[in-house]
Amino acid sequence: VVSTQSTGAAVAGGAAEGQQPEQQQNTWKNVLWRFISMYIMISVIPSFFRGKPAPTTTPDGKPAPGTASNMWPSGTSFELYLYASTEENFNLMNSSLLCHFEGLTMGEWYDGEDKNGQRNFLTNIPATTDLQKNGTMYLHIIAARNDAQINPLHPQHNKHDVVILTKMWTRFKKRKIESTTNLLTGETKNKIEGASDGEIISYWHPNLTISMLDDQRVWPVGQQIPPPFDKWVDIDMELMQYKPILYINDYWELNSDLIPINETVKELPLNVIYSPISVFYFQIYEAQKMQKQWNSMLGVAEASDEENDIVKRTMLETNPYILGVTIVVSLIHTVFEFLAFKNDIQFWKSRKSLEGLSIRSIVFNIFTQLIVVLYVLDNDTNTMVAISVCIGLVIEAWKITKVMDITVDMSDPVLGLIPRVSIKDKSSYA
Question: Average of pLDDT values for 91-104?
Answer without folding.
Answer: 92
